[in-house]
Specification:
2 helices
Length: about 150
């Protein structure tokens, strides 16, 4: 009978140990799962924040580029308008030169000769301004380099 009692005692002890493990698992499973879910959500939130930060930086950088390009487009529009006006004036001058009654050849027309002289002076002036701007830029680079 003692052997039977010992087996019963071992069985009770094993049942208690195994049952308490199962009970412990059941009792602590939900909190553990909640903790893991909270950690996963926290990690997801951090990743989302990093993505949003990167995207906002990218948007700011692109906004800066767009503003720069808009300024360039505005400058180019002004240049195109000026060139259109200049072409229109040149067409008018050429039409008038072909109507010139004072000379036999249009190339000898005083209007065209004056226009050629004006264009030559304007070209020289633009070249001079470009050279001065280049020199100023070089001097600025030298100052910044020192």
């Amino acid at each position: 009978m003692e052997a039977n009692a010992t087996i019963q005692l071992i069985s009770i002890i094993l049942n208690f140990i195994l049952a308490s493990g199962l009970l412990g698992t059941i009792l602590f499973f939900k909190p553990k799962k909640r903790k893991e879910n909270a950690e996963a959500e926290s990690s997801e939130l951090k990743n989302t924040e990093q993505i949003v930060t990167l995207q906002s930086q990218q948007i700011k950088r692109l906004d800066g580029r767009v503003e720069t390009l808009e300024k360039k487009v505005d400058k180019l529009s002004i240049i195109i308008e000026n060139k259109d006006v200049e072409l229109s004036e040149n067409r008018h001058i050429i039409r008038q030169a072909f109507k010139c009654e004072y000379v036999d050849e249009p190339k000898d027309c005083p209007v065209l000769l004056l226009k050629a002289e004006y264009d030559r002076k304007k070209k020289l002036q633009l070249e001079k301004e470009a050279e001065e701007a280049r020199i100023r830029a070089e001097e600025a680079q030298e100052r910044d380099g020192k």
